[in-house]
UniProtKB/TrEMBL annotation, chain A:
This is DUF4249 domain-containing protein. It holds the Pfam family DUF4249. It comes from Dyadobacter psychrophilus.
UniProtKB/TrEMBL annotation, chain B:
InterPro entries: CarboxyPept-like_regulatory, Plug_dom, Plug_dom_sf. It comes from Dyadobacter psychrophilus. It holds the Pfam family Plug. Residues 1-18 form the signal peptide. SUPFAM superfamilies: Carboxypeptidase regulatory domain-like, Porins. Keywords: Receptor, Signal. Residues 135-216 form the TonB-dependent receptor plug domain. This is Outer membrane receptor proteins, mostly Fe transport. It comes from the Bacteria.
Length: 312, 785
């Protein structure tokens, strides 16, 4: 039996090696393989002419640059941002305070469309109402500011890329999570620059930082014993930014609607168009109008923790 | 009572007057002893036909006399047996397979199809055909081969998910030796889980679905594992760039019991790492971000034993399948690792009660599970989910006479759905363990099907399937607000209590009219219902998709299908045309931005509505001779109208493709060489594409005005393959070499408009339309002794 087995394997090996087809095929494979890789294909895009208002905003308990930005929807591959000028924006609270936002004019053309709140002091547990009037078209939204979270402490750690390509500082934050109430959190890191306005991150920043960590307390323990908040600045990227200088680790407490909105935005940034991800769609909004609108009226509370990162 | 006795007496007197005898037995392959299901029988002079049942058993009830019975089966030499019927007799039929060497002899013969027994919308594909068709990796794939048949398309190009006649990929029931397989894909759909070396036959029902099958809306793919060569020990195997396999089969007790064990292991990750690293070394641009340590592996193992009693009346089969995948790839969901596995076990007992009464009793267990791990993160959790199904079936075939048969049976199915649990992977994990409640369902099915050849020209098959479905406790039924955004109320049900009960009747009818021996007109009506819904957040289906049983909120899906067909045989060819219209009700789709991840209220993310599918399928086929193959063209349309999705307006399904053309051909040059050429064309599927863009907090996002409102470019591809066979005294070697996508067509795999992080001074939109492959060579090496 053993002899038979030996004979069989020897014969199989001989046949494999001597077979004229095998070397031919391997050379053939090596010759053609470089041509068979992932490639981009040209596609023609749809053109729409819908007038859709885009509302970007953030109102928080720091009150250092609460703002609304208004732009119009543009063609998919247009390079021009279309800011909305001369809009009337009023934000009022359930405690009777009200503020008409002032347009910021001191920025580059590309970053126009910002309106700032200078008089309203936003506080947790209060409900705020946004009213936008653009040439007689009215857009309204209501949101309640959640209770602010509290970062107990912060620990710095570091990461080295597996192939030595990148490395960075990782800030781990520690905070209590009251299990008896439903909470949604968002966390991120931003550069602690002296630029104005800050909210607490720079409001007008050409490249957004989308290294957002979203946390539903459904899975969190009573004490979050250190969680890294320095994530890749774009969800599709695989490397985290190399921190160097003064930064803020920020923990937001957000409403369920806001959580769902940011989840949808992050999913959109991760989407592959629907092959292995959901069919792309417009994101939910809390802004009501008879006219088409996208965006969100964000009313959040936050706590920030400063830290200094040394360059690698 | 007297009246009843009178009727019985009259009935018996007829029976006595019409004294008939049975000739019965089993049809098997003479070489391997494998049973041959649905072999055709024709009795000379009577011009009527019958078929053996799904296990190769037949019974013909005839008057005393001398008959010439012609038995035919595709791929086998026709046999004519002379029977002198004086009493009941047992006659086992052994057919000779037509191998490549003898194929030329068949040139004079016509397609061996018994037109009166044709099942409208049924297609079968032989494993030899599957093996002669090119694939991207050189690994023969049953599901990719099925996509060359009319009305069957890939859910996404290059993938194994099937969209049959406008249905989604979850609307196809996949049965392996009676047991359902819930996720039939390896490596995220690039391979199907079925190893061609272990599979004996595959049938797909897309029109008339026999009454014994149900539970899915669009089609049934019925795969049978080989039983194992009952006459001699065989070893076969193959080596490929992606996977290698080995099969051992043979008798345990000669002519009484046999076994087969077949295994396949894929090292696709190693190949990808090697090629990626080489491409990176050569500075090939698309691989600039290639990251090593990809882990793409899978195995599947099929095993089966069968044992036949000496009296030939009982036969037992025990078969099992186990398959597992490991998946981590740098282009797909960074920082995650997935594992998933399918296991099935089936036990079957075939019993010949009487010569004309055959029973099959089966018990099966099917398990599907997956793990999804979040790596390199303090949350460091593992998400685990799956389902288990246990079923019992009892089916009876009653061969009434040589023109009529009855099939009836019952089944009981219990399914346990485990939608998900999260557990920390380490002590330092920040994740709190969490479990979603399990769901339990029980289905009881009774079915009956009756086939009869009424006249020489007209035959019909009538079936009905009655299903009761219960969603059982322990569980919670939620009531939602009208927009389903908030939970209004909930009711807790204790274990065993019925949370939701449904029942339905599914009539099935098919009729064949054969005006002459060359042509047949067919009509079919089919109603089907589907009680389990796959909530998939992708077009191709991911291992992490969620099966949701029907409940108070999500009702069962149902479909009525009408189809008309015509088939004509001339010389060595068969030409067929089939038209169909399908109305679907309760079909589901997800709302925009649906959240399926460990969501207790997952039914709130789904909406139900109507669907419509219609099409015309044509096929020209040649199954005999040196050149074999087929050409098909399909014209089809499918759409959905669902309240809460696309503003309630009708929208095309993603796999809606207007035109499909395929061409499959094999040229058997001589005993040693077979050359194949396959071509496929599909007009572009539908996708959601933006009509505008906007900037939000420094990133660019898209604005859509409809779901699937954009048409992707057409897909087409030509593959060539050469198969060299060398036969020596005791063993045979087979070497396959081919080119996939010969003319380097960059077919689209995914397309989207995304934020371009490299644009200045702020982000812009960028069209990302990815083609996975260009021209690609493949090879594999097989042996058999």
């Amino acid at each position: 039996m053993v002899r038979y087995r030996k004979k069989f394997w020897a014969s199989l090996l001989r046949s494999l090696l001597n077979d004229v087809y095998l070397p031919v095929s391997i050379s053939f494979l090596l010759l053609l393989t470089p041509f068979s890789c992932v490639q981009n294909v040209e596609l023609h895009l749809l053109k729409g002419n819908e007038k859709v208002l885009v509302v970007e905003s953030e109102f928080n308990n720091l009150n250092t640059g609460n703002y609304v930005r208004l732009t119009w929807l543009r063609q998919v591959q247009d390079k021009q941002v279309l800011p909305v000028d001369d809009a009337l924006i009023v934000v009022s609270s359930d405690s009777g305070e009200s503020d008409t936002l002032e347009q910021g004019y001191n920025y580059d053309d590309l970053f126009k469309g910002y309106y700032f709140s200078n008089n309203l002091i936003c506080k947790p547990n209060r409900t705020y109402k946004l009213k936008i009037d653009v040439g007689g078209q009215i857009y309204e939204a209501t949101a309640t500011m959640p209770r602010p979270p509290k970062i107990d402490s912060l620990r710095l750690d570091s990461i080295y890329g597996s192939s030595g390509k990148f490395n960075s500082t990782l800030p781990f934050i520690y905070f209590k999570e009251p299990l008896e109430e439903k909470n949604y959190y968002m966390a991120k890191v931003c550069y602690d620059a002296s630029n104005e306005p800050k909210n607490p991150c720079e409001v007008i920043f050409p490249k957004g930082h989308w290294g957002l960590l979203l946390l539903d307390d459904q899975y969190l323990p009573a004490y979050v014993n250190g969680i890294n908040v320095n994530l890749p600045s774009m969800p599709k990227d695989d490397f985290v930014q190399n921190l160097s200088g003064n930064y803020l680790a920020i923990l937001y407490s957000v409403t369920p609607e806001c959580f769902a909105y940011y989840q949808a935005l992050l999913d959109a940034l991760k989407s592959d168009g629907g092959v292995y991800s959901p069919s792309p769609a417009n994101h939910p909004t809390n802004i009501k109008s008879d006219h088409k609108v996208v965006g969100f009226f964000h009313v959040v509370s936050l706590d920030s923790y400063p830290f200094h990162a040394l360059s690698f | 009572m007297a009246k009843l006795l009178f009727v019985v007496a009259i009935f018996l007197s007829f029976s006595i007057c019409a004294q008939k005898f049975n000739v019965s037995g089993k049809v098997t392959d003479v070489v391997s002893g494998e049973s041959l299901a649905n072999a055709s029988f024709r009795i000379a002079g009577l011009e009527t036909g019958m078929q053996s049942n799904g296990y190769g058993y037949y019974s013909l009830s005839l008057m005393k006399g001398i008959y010439q019975i012609e038995i035919s089966y595709l791929g086998y030499t026709k046999k004519i047996v002379r029977v002198d019927l004086l009493g009941n007799m047992k006659l086992d039929i052994q057919l000779n397979p037509v191998n490549q060497q003898l194929r030329e002899i068949q040139i004079g013969e016509r397609d061996q199809v018994d037109l009166s027994n044709i099942v409208l919308g049924k297609a079968s594909i032989q494993m030899s055909q599957v093996e002669s068709m090119g694939t991207m990796t050189g690994e023969a794939d049953i599901f990719q081969a099925l996509q060359y048949l009319p009305g069957i398309k890939a859910a996404v190009e290059g993938n194994t998910g099937l969209s049959v006649r406008g249905g989604s990929f979850d609307q196809t029931l996949i049965l392996l030796d009676e047991a359902p397989v819930y996720n039939a894909s390896h490596a995220l759909g690039f391979f199907s889980v079925f190893n061609t070396d272990a599979i004996k036959s595959v049938d797909i029902y897309k029109g008339t679905i026999p009454a014994q099958f149900g539970g899915r809306l669009s089609s049934v793919v019925y795969l049978k594992m080989k039983e194992g060569n009952i006459n001699k020990l065989n070893v076969s195997g193959g080596l490929g760039a992606i996977a290698s396999k080995l099969t051992i089969e043979g008798p345990i007790q000669k002519e009484q019991s046999s076994f087969i064990v077949s295994g396949r292991y894929s090292y696709a990750g190693n190949t990808a790492n090697l090629l990626g690293k080489t491409a990176q070394y050569l500075h090939i641009y698309p691989f600039r971000n290639f990251t090593e340590n990809n882990d793409i592996r899978f195995y599947d193992l099929n095993a089966k034993i069968n044992w036949k009693q000496k009296n030939g009346r009982d036969q037992f089969f025990l078969s099992g399948y186990a398959g597992k995948d490991w998946f981590k790839y740098y282009l797909f969901q960074q920082g995650t690792f997935m594992k998933w596995q399918n296991n099935t076990v089936s036990f079957r007992w075939n019993h010949i009660q009487k010569d004309n009464l055959f029973s099959n009793t089966a018990a099966y267990f099917s398990n599907y599970g997956y793990n999804y791990s979040l790596l390199m993160d303090r949350r460091d959790f593992e998400w685990k989910a799956g389902l288990q199904e246990v079923g019992l079936k009892n089916e009876w075939d009653y061969f009434i006479d040589h023109i009529a048969s009855l099939k009836a049976g019952t089944s009981l199915t219990y399914t346990r759905y485990s939608p998900g649990s999260i557990k920390p992977r380490s002590d330092s994990s920040l994740t709190r363990p969490f479990d979603l409640e399990r769901k339990h369902t029980l289905q009881v099915v009774v079915f009956v099907g009756y086939s009869k050849q009424f006249t020489k020209q007209l035959s019909a098959c009538l079936g009905v399937r009655m299903v009761t479905y219960s969603l059982l406790g322990e569980g919670v039924a939620y009531q939602y607000s009208e927009d389903r955004k908030t939970v209004k109320d909930s009711t807790h049900y204790n274990g065993g209590r019925v949370i939701n009960f449904r029942s339905g009747v599914e009539p099935r009818l098919s009729m064949n009219f054969t005006p002459d021996s060359n042509s047949v007109f067919s009509f079919a009506f089919n109603r089907s219902r589907q009680y389990a819904h796959l909530l998939s957040s992708s077009a191709v289906g991911l291992p992490t998709d969620i099966w949701l049983p029907s409940n108070r909120i999500v009702r069962p899906q149902s479909a009525n299908l009408i189809s008309l067909g015509y088939k004509y045989l001339f010389r060595h060819y068969a030409v067929s045309v089939e038209g169909y219209q399908k109305w679907m009700y309760g079909v589901i789709d997800l709302i925009d931005n649906a959240n399926l991840f460990v969501n207790q209220y997952v039914d709130s993310q789904v909406r139900s509505g109507k669907g419509n599918a219609r099409g015309l399928e044509t096929m020209l086929e040649k199954k005999t001779g040196r050149v074999t193959g087929w050409v098909t063209y399909t014209l089809s349309k499918t759409d959905r109208t669902i309240e809460g999705v696309n503003a309630g307006k009708a929208y095309p399904a993603r796999y809606d493709r207007r035109h499909s053309l395929s061409f499959v051909t094999t040229f058997h040059a001589n005993k040693k060489i077979a050359l194949s050429m396959d071509f496929q064309y599909n007009s572009g599927g539908a996708a959601s594409f933006p009509i505008g863009a906007y900037e939000y907090m420094g990133a660019t996002f898209n604005y859509y005005n409809s779901r699937n409102g954009y048409r992707l470019p057409a897909f087409h591809r030509l593959d060539l393959q050469a198969m060299f066979t060398k036969t020596r005294k005791k063993w045979e070697r087979q070497f396959v070499i081919g080119i996939f996508n010969v003319y380097d067509k960059r077919n689209l795999f995914s397309a989207q408009v995304e934020t371009d992080t490299f644009s200045q001074p702020y982000t812009l939109s960028r069209v990302s339309a990815i083609s996975l492959y260009g021209v690609m060579p493949f090879f594999s090496y097989g042996f058999k002794f």
